[in-house]
């Protein structure tokens, strides 16, 4: 194992770096896109159920199929990392739009009414009151999306761009366990670190959730 | 890109590699993984939910399981055990366990403790409390976890084809190998339709199994 690590250090680091980019760029893009979509699902309640259903169907498209199709739809090269980024962004949007809608719906209507009574306009009320109160639910969804993305990136290796997934396909082709194990360990570790980071951010930006047990 | 492959009758006969047979092998992986996963995860989840011991495990099983890359696990298992049904089932079962375990736990925890107390007060044995009160009341949460596990496993079972096994992933991998996008499209559509149908069946089963009083 140690000789594999020392001989392939550069390959592993390159794969890891690519993995991080391919997984996290879609999380950020997907989050930014999902916010307005989720809001629409709450602002116009009639849109909520269609939104949930469309998101469910989008999420059931196998990642492999999406990775293969996007080059045809977008006109990109099959080896372009853009395919993976767009595919994972679609999954992230599918996952987070619903979470954002559910989070905003979970806000106590009395809180929203109080904010209105205090003179908040719609946009200010959304940004200053509804979103912060919905944050715990939204961030829980963000954790799921981030971890799912990190493990999904590897499937991209089947079409040639997959970060740590390339270690899997290489090990599999050469009948060689080390790269596969290193890939799995790094991928799980990456997911754990990303998850923990979001938890810490959540504790930092929603300090009130820690006191809920005492006030309730 | 077109729908020719999907609607070509020649691909719907019952010969090797035809769409119906691929659907069957795909469903076979999915159903086996769901059964084995349920047998393993359900008792553990119920036990943790019932006793409250090991909650940490139940809460974190979800994210830990999601973070395991199925493709890597599958390739590791095939390299270790050789080609066959076992490595696929191991990889897919690992995928199924976390959502079922977490939802069994969450379902048990969501119960009103007074209901459980009332059942005990009426003289029910622990086993009766579990099977007649706790389990039926935990079912809605439990089944929603099972449904998300099923959706995930239907989409992910396609990777079995990447190591040379069957399932609907064959259409994706083989189509990609020969640049036949019509075949890839057929695979993607059939998998998505299968996922939606399976979810529908489970939704109907849910209406039928869950006590009317809980709806």
Automatic annotation (TrEMBL), chain A:
Pfam families: BPD_transp_1 (PF00528). Keywords: Membrane, Transmembrane, Transmembrane helix, Transport. One of its GO terms (cellular component) is plasma membrane. Residues 16-197 form the ABC transmembrane type-1 domain. It is found in: Cell membrane; Membrane. GO terms for biological process: glycine betaine transport; transmembrane transport. The keyword Transmembrane applies. The lineage of its organism: Bacteria, Bacillati, Actinomycetota, Actinomycetes, Micromonosporales. It is a multi-pass membrane protein. This is Glycine/betaine ABC transporter permease. Belongs to the binding-protein-dependent transport system permease family. The chain crosses the membrane at residues 20-39, 51-72, 78-96, 131-160, 180-201. InterPro entries: ABC_transp_perm/SBD (IPR051204), MetI-like (IPR000515), MetI-like_sf (IPR035906).
From TrEMBL, chain B:
GO terms for cellular component: plasma membrane. Keywords: Membrane, Transmembrane, Transmembrane helix, Transport. Residues 23-202 form the ABC transmembrane type-1 domain. It is a multi-pass membrane protein. The chain crosses the membrane at residues 27-49, 70-101, 149-173, 185-209. Its main location: membrane. PROSITE patterns: ABC_TM1. InterPro entries: ABC_transp_perm/SBD (IPR051204), MetI-like (IPR000515), MetI-like_sf (IPR035906). It is found in: Cell membrane; Membrane. It comes from the Bacteria. GO terms for biological process: glycine betaine transport; transmembrane transport. The keyword Transmembrane helix applies. PANTHER family: GLYCINE BETAINE/L-PROLINE TRANSPORT SYSTEM PERMEASE PROTEIN PROW (PTHR30177), POSSIBLE OSMOPROTECTANT (GLYCINE BETAINE_CARNITINE_CHOLINE_L-PROLINE) TRANSPORT INTEGRAL MEMBRANE PROTEIN ABC TRANSPORTER PROZ (PTHR30177:SF33). Belongs to the binding-protein-dependent transport system permease family. This is Glycine/betaine ABC transporter permease. It comes from Paractinoplanes ferrugineus. The gene is proW.
């Amino acid at each position: 194992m140690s000789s594999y690590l020392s001989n392939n250090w550069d390959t592993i680091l390159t794969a890891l770096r690519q993995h991080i980019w391919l997984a996290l760029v879609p999380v950020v893009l997907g989050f930014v896109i999902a916010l307005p979509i989720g809001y629409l699902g709450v602002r116009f309640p009639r849109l909520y159920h269609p939104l949930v259903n469309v998101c469910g169907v989008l999420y059931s498209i196998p990642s492999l199929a999406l990775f293969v199709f996007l080059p045809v739809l977008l006109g990109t090269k099959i080896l372009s990392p853009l395919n993976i980024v767009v595919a994972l962004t679609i999954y992230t949007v599918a996952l987070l739009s619903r979470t954002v809608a559910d989070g905003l719906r979970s806000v106590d209507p009395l809180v929203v009414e109080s904010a209105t009574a205090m003179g908040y306009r719609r946009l200010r009320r959304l940004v200053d009151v509804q979103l912060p109160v919905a944050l715990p639910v939204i961030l829980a969804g963000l954790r799921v999306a981030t971890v799912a993305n990190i493990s999904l990136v590897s499937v991209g290796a089947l079409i040639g761009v997959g970060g740590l997934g390339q270690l899997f396909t290489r090990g599999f082709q050469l009948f060689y366990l080390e790269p596969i194990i290193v890939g799995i360990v790094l991928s799980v570790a990456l997911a754990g670190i990303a998850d923990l980071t979001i938890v810490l951010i959540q504790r930092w930006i929603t300090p009130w959730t820690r006191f809920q047990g005492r006030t309730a | 890109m077109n729908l020719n492959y999907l609607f070509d009758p020649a691909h719907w006969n019952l010969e090797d590699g035809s769409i119906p047979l691929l659907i069957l092998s795909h469903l076979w992986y999915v159903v086996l993984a769901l059964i084995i996963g349920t047998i393993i995860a359900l008792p553990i989840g119920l036990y943790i939910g019932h006793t409250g011991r090991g909650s940490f495990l139940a809460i974190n099983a979800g994210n830990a399981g999601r973070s395991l890359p199925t493709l890597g696990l599958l390739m590791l298992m095939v390299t270790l055990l050789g080609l066959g049904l076992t490595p696929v089932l191991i990889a897919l079962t690992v995928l199924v366990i976390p959502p079922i375990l977490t939802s069994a736990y969450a379902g048990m925890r969501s119960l009103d403790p007074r209901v459980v107390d009332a059942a005990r007060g009426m003289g029910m044995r622990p086993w009766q409390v579990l099977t007649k009160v706790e389990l039926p009341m935990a079912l809605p949460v439990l089944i929603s976890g099972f449904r998300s596990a099923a959706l995930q496993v239907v989409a992910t079972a396609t990777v079995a084809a990447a190591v040379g096994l069957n399932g609907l992933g064959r259409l994706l991998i083989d189509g990609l190998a020969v640049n036949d996008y019509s075949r890839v499209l057929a695979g993607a559509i059939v998998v998505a339709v299968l996922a939606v149908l399976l979810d529908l069946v489970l939704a109907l089963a849910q209406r039928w199994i869950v006590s009317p009083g809980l709806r």
